[in-house]
Write a structure and sequence with these properties.
224 residues; alpha+beta; 4-stranded antiparallel beta sheet; two-stranded antiparallel ribbon; 6 strands
Amino acid sequence: MTEYRLKITLLNDATFGRGDGVAGLVDTEVQHDEYGLPYLGGRALKGLLGAECADIVFALESACPKQQADHWKAVAQRLFGQSGGALEGEAILRVSPARLPDDLRAAVAQDVRRKKLARAAVLETLTALRRQTAMDAKTGAPKKDTLRTMRVIVRTTVFEATLSFSEEPMPDDLALLAACVKAFRRAGSGRNRGRGKLKAELYDADNRPVTEVHFKDFQKAVGA
């Protein structure tokens, strides 16, 4: 099975929310594993990349001849499956959760198992609490009962995910994937309000950065 690695570096604080909070502590908690290490789920990550892909295909449909646009639409479906997930199993791309680098995870896991570190302490080291409140547009004052506490993963944290293919990817598969990676710039709760800015990079099995290599192929193919 062909595999690539996606490296994600947070450029500002981000919340990869798990959909709930902790009573009396935070209203929005981050996803974290049994060792207190935050992560971004594989399904969520694939969805974010797929959303960037949909935007790219939409732009190509507006700017390119129909035959060319249809070709890239077919490549997108080959990578990510049909929209809505009805044919998810037909997609050739599999995306693992984005986790902290393996060597760091292994070291932390060992210390937690040996009770040298507490899970809560690990989480607190890698995250911070941010508080915000809704403002009244007319008065400029905070609205009552709107104070919320959100846990954030601190900037500069690095995550890595494995992108695996159920069959050998074709050059256009990699070209479109590279375009999606280039377009992928935010993740997590509040990303539409400025949080979760990131840099994503694609690496091959030999740990060589290949985003720009495959993106140049995409640019050439679409005449950009």
